[in-house]
Amino acid sequence: MANTITADDIRELFSQAMSAMYQQEVPQYGTLLELVADVNLAVLENNPALHEHLANADELARLNVERHGAIRVGTAHELSTLRRLFAVMGMFPVGYYDLSQAGVPVHSTAFRPIDDAALARNPFRIFTSLLRPELIDDTKLRERAISALALRDIFTPRCRVLLDRFDEQGAFTQAEGEEFVQEALETFRWHRHATVDEETYHALNNEHRLIADVVCFPGCHINHLTPRTLDIDRVQALMPGSGIEPKTLIEGPPRREVPILLRQTSFRALEEPVLFAGSHQGTHTARFGEIEQRGVALTPKGRELYDRLLGEAGIGKDNLTHQLHLQEVFKGFPDSDVLLRRQGLAYYRYRLTPSGEAHRNAIHPGDDPQPLIERGWVIAQPIIYEDFLPVSAAGIFQSNLGDENHAHRHGNASRQAFEQALGCPVMDEFALYQQAQDRSKKRCGLL
Ligand code: OOG
Ligand code: NI
């Protein structure tokens, strides 16, 4: 096929189109983007070393582009079609997240690029949740939800035609790729017209606000987008001054010398006008904006330590107290690259320096990289965490669902059912990081 478009290019076009659409739909999100850009600029001005590092890594130009978004779907067929749609963009399901533990009746995965080059080009991911109707206690309501979902098709007919064509051809021409992005965008657009009447909406909303959000509209509207910030504490503090109401707590680990995993915060979902079947007016609260700051990916051992300390820290009442307390508790988590590497807590990407190249013959599989790093032959760079955190995700969900207590729901992960709905297994995030580290070690002759 002549003149084909790459998956990376399609993902790039798609993330740009999503961003433009969402800024139009949710003007407050545009305000957040401006604030994030201002803070990023200020951080770079005060930190020439970081500026140089980002410039060298070719990251300056894409500093302010979105890193992820999130959607929620209602049926196995919707989820498996999304799998095909995201595959066109080089995004594959990684990880299984059980949110039922937090009283949210969904389970989730993240569609994201997986290889180093694709991640470097554009790491855009979509956190995708599938409703679990079996967790709706009221039988009548459950059936109403299922039948409302059965009536909708969240994909345009043209999108389906193009998906079939992609599966036959294995690629798109430039023109097909561009058309596909426009058609795919329709699935994520906001619809003011609900598919159900007011009474059904309220019944589902009372069962759980998330159920109403998934079931009552003709599409699976994007519910937030998330740019990257270089200083999440500062953006959180500045949000109110820009007329944005942040959630109470920044989720994830505390601020550290060597950032780990993922820190996130969001602004509260907006109340937006909707029109129910029968033309009754009402409002719906679902859509918000979020920011993220990522650090090094942890090994299973590092992750265990993180989960334990996070559990010990508990949840604070206000962000300042919470962050100070987290910092105290996380004194138990080594905070230097050397210790993180030596204790096998985090993943690193190894590279030979020019003098390392000159001494290639002196480097052997199984060598301890540390002395080679100290000699200036090898450089180790943190592998950035590309995934999500279930406790943080639950915090983000809950801050946008009000503070109702759904403690009566017990967690019951159902990865198998999720994968069956998806139509394939989800990839193991730890395996992906391990492979990236191993590949880099092999290139250096260390493995
Ligand atoms: C998804 C919430 C999770 C994150 O960044 O952890 C999430 C949702 O509200 O649908 O996006
Ligand atoms: Ni998010």
Automatic annotation (TrEMBL):
Keywords: Dioxygenase, Iron, Oxidoreductase. It is an enzyme of class 1 (oxidoreductase). GO terms for molecular function: dioxygenase activity. SMART domains: DUF1338. It holds the Pfam family HGLS. Belongs to the 2-oxoadipate dioxygenase/decarboxylase family. Its cofactor is Fe(2+). Its EC number is 1.13.11.93. InterPro entries: HGLS (IPR009770), YdcJ_bac-like (IPR047869). This is 2-oxoadipate dioxygenase/decarboxylase.
